[in-house]
Amino acid sequence: KKQESMRHYMVFSDSLQARLHKETRVENGLHRALLNDEFELHYQPIVSLDDYSIHGVEALIRWRLPDGNLLMPDDFIEEANRVGLIGDLGLWVLESACKQLRQWLDHGIQLSMSINVSPRHLRQAGFEEIVKEVVQKYQIPAGCLMLELTEEVFVDSGIASLYALTEIRKAGVGIAIDDFGTGYSSMRYLKSLPIDRIKIDRCFVSAHSDDSLSDPMITQAIVFLAEGLGLDLVAEGVETSSQALELAKQGCHKGQGYLFSKPQPQDVIFEMLKQKKLL
Ligand code: C2E
Ligand code: CA
Ligand code: CA
Ligand code: CA
Predict the structure, then answer these.
(1) pLDDT one-digit tens code per residue, 52-110
(2) How far apart are CA 88 and CA 3, in angstroms?
(3) Which of 60, 79, 147, 213 should be mutated for ligand 1, with most atoms under 8 A from CB?
(4) pTM, whole model, 2 decimals?
(5) Which of 92, 143, 192, 273 lies 20 to 30 Å (CA to CA) from residue 59?
(6) Are 197 and 174 spatial neighbours (Cβ–Cβ below 8 Å)?
(7) What is the DSSP letter of 263?
(8) How many angstroms separate the CA atoms of 241 and 6, rounded?
(9) Residue ranges of the EAL domain (predicted)?
């Protein structure tokens, strides 16, 4: 008996050590990566479900390691948060996305750019001032930039965050609630929040088992909610044409997902943007 628990302990401790080792690597690496400019943004189109024209893109961060490997945000965002680098990373994203948006606008491409903002970054003092400065610097027109935030921001961030969001909207930057339906949003909050868009979480849209909507009751309810509150609506995780069709029938007219395109590097998305239409 004792031997067995000893063995379990060693297995546990081995994997813990491996994890700790990986975490320190990631932490040291994050500092280096910021200095060496190892991050890149990939872009996924946000598409009209009526005619498949491209309405905008969402910028999604990736980390290009010196050995050429690509790390996905789930591999390092949490760590960046833990070691206090999420603000620096967020600034890099904001700046890079706006710089890119300016280039595309200069090419005569009309589109909106969505970026993800972590709750901790939003809560940093002066966040709204920095957003305003970057918008000024790149002359981003009103309605062309949108910040995506998860529901937790609206539930427990308090008055300072609400003030920041209100200021940001005054500068012509939109606010979206990301992963809607998975957090703790209460209807009461929703009505008074300074927001422009809801993004239906992909768990209600696609399931691996089926081509149709994974939760049509929920998506329909969110459509009614968005209509009632006068909010723009985007469905995430659209993977099949029957999901796109069902959503449009329910009254959701924008979608994002592998059906249209995976997130793409800048040169690939530029070609798609010039075509304007997908499929
Ligand atoms: P998110 O904001 O919900 O982004 C959507 C994620 O779903 C992306 O994963 C995207 O590649 C994936 N996706 C898109 N369409 C489909 C689909 O049809 N099916 C499926 N199964 N997945 C789809 P990604 O790029 O790995 O990003 C994961 C999360 O990391 C994001 O979720 C976001 O929360 C976070 N993230 C990404 N970029 C940033 C960033 O620049 N800053 C911060 N703070 N967080 C970021
Ligand atoms: Ca997002
Ligand atoms: Ca999402
Ligand atoms: Ca998510």
Answers:
(1) 999 999 999 999 999 999 999 999 999 999 999 999 999 999 999 999 999 999 999 99
(2) 48
(3) 60
(4) 0.91
(5) 192
(6) yes
(7) -
(8) 53
(9) 23-277
